[in-house]
Automatic annotation (TrEMBL):
GO function term, MF aspect, one: cysteine desulfurase activity
Cofactor(s) this protein cannot do without: pyridoxal 5'-phosphate
Protein name: Cysteine desulfurase
Enzyme class: transferase
The protein's Enzyme Commission number: 2.8.1.7
Taxonomic path: Bacteria, Pseudomonadati, Pseudomonadota, Gammaproteobacteria, Thiotrichales
Function: Catalyzes the removal of elemental sulfur and selenium atoms from L-cysteine, L-cystine, L-selenocysteine, and L-selenocystine to produce L-alanine.
């Protein structure tokens, strides 16, 4: 699909917001859904809906083929070695919690160190704090610079012989910073640590190859990749997943059950208890088809160009301060306007049809670092245009004039 045709693929973007054409700049929270994904999910419920894996009738077998076909698409999308390494979860948050509650509780003990960074989303902070309370592990936080960058030297300085796990964000949702995760993985391996990468923001914006990265776990959410909510993926190296205890218990994750003993199912089903989000997985598969029809490299280049244009245009506004100016960024711009509160700005900008986030973005330590209560955040999707940026800049100017 050509980028010039992309916007037409999103029905929601045709609507007016407060009498103005909608300019959606909150894809970092959730991306919009192309008609190909909507139609795929509708078709599943019209023609294929049945429970998976256990039916011995055609409809269930077709639903199973569609569900497992989506898993294979994810495998190829991440360049994983096997479908066994692709676990469907609700989203990035559940993926990280699954690793913390299974691999973490099994392998970590008092005094072991888990390394995260100062720019993590709360879903990659709090699960490890729960383990700190339960097991007495030590949480080591890599500081970021005032540009919102993690310097590799600062990361390496946090690694010790006690480092058992590094869990870091690939691309920051609050700043847009893209971290040097390939180098971070190599440095972590030198001290024998496992590595989990939080790919929630990276996967929609760039090509991800988990084998080239050599990470042990990789997590992302379908709804940020133009797919439905309620579906996400945990990638894990097969040997690690095989050795981990189940996360949740019930149907489908078992091979046999007696009151004396239960044998668990094989991968990936050991980690997929109960009826899965069948339509969500199939919708995620359609979302992967959509982004691959454009090309991740094409998406990355286009969004970089948008980011450059938006940064230049926003910087012309008096009193506007961009939060997060790392040299390597994805399609996210956080900013504040002196003398205003982000919530007031966003509320006024909504009157101009501009949808952007005013929040701490579930990254409160980032806000503390920059000494701000929140930021305005414009986060881009494949459907955004230069005209959207011009509308954004005009709305910021208008809101600023009304508030300052
Ligand atoms: C880097 C990062 N990690 C984890 C998550 C959690 O993903 P979920 O489990 O699908 O919710 C998010 C969601 N980020 C945002 C959700 O809303 N605004 C955001 O910036 C994120 O941006």
């Amino acid at each position: 699909m050509n980028l010039s045709d992309v916007k037409d693929a999103f029905p929601i973007l045709k609507q007016l917001e407060n009498g103005q054409p909608l300019v959606y700049l909150d894809s970092g929270a959730t991306a919009q859904t192309p008609v190909s994904v909507i139609d795929t999910i509708a078709r599943y419920y019209r023609e294929e809906n049945a429970n998976v894996h256990r039916g011995v009738y055609g409809l269930s077998e077709r639903a199973t083929d569609a569900y497992e076909g989506a898993r294979s698409k994810v495998r190829r999308f991440l360049n994983a070695a096997s479908d066994k390494e692709i676990i469907f979860v609700r989203g990035t948050t559940e993926a990280i919690n699954l690793v913390a509650q299974t691999w973490g509780r099994r392998h970590l003990k008092a005094g072991d160190e888990v390394v995260i960074t100062e720019m993590e989303h709360h879903s990659n902070i709090v699960p490890w704090q729960l383990l700190r309370e339960e097991l007495g592990i030590k949480l080591v936080v890599v500081p970021m610079t005032d540009d919102g960058e993690i310097r590799l030297a600062d990361f390496e300085a946090c690694l010790t012989s006690k480092t058992q796990l590094v869990s870091v964000v690939h691309m920051s949702n609050a700043l847009g910073t893209i971290n040097p995760v390939a180098d971070m993985v190599q440095a972590a391996k030198k001290v024998g640590a496992k590595v989990l990468l939080d790919g929630a923001q990276a996967v929609p914006h760039m090509s991800v190859d988990v084998r080239a990265l050599d990470c042990d776990f990789y997590a992302f959410s379908g709804h940020k990749l133009y797919g439905p909510t309620g579906i996400g993926v945990l990638y894990g190296k097969e040997a690690l997943l095989d050795a981990m205890p189940p996360y949740q218990a019930g149907g489908d994750m078992i091979y046999s059950v007696t009151f004396d003993k239960t044998e668990y199912n094989v991968l990936p089903y050991k980690f997929e208890a109960g009826t899965p989000n069948i339509s969500g997985a199939i919708g995620l598969g359609a979302a992967i088809d959509f982004v691959e029809s454009i090309g991740l490299d094409t998406i990355a280049a286009y969004e970089h160009e948008l980011l450059t244009y938006a940064t230049r245009q926003l910087q012309t506004i008096d009193g506007l301060r961009i939060i997060g100016t790392a040299p390597n960024k994805g399609g996210v711009i956080s900013f504040i306007v002196e003398g205003t509160h982000p919530h007031d700005m966003a509320t006024l900008m909504d009157q101009d049809g501009i949808a952007l986030r005013a929040s701490h973005h579930c990254a409160m330590p980032v806000m503390q670092h920059f000494d701000v209560p929140a930021t305005l955040r414009a986060s881009f999707g494949v459907y955004n245009t230069h005209e959207d940026i011009d509308r954004l800049v005009a709305a910021v100017e208008e809101a600023r004039t009304m508030l300052v």
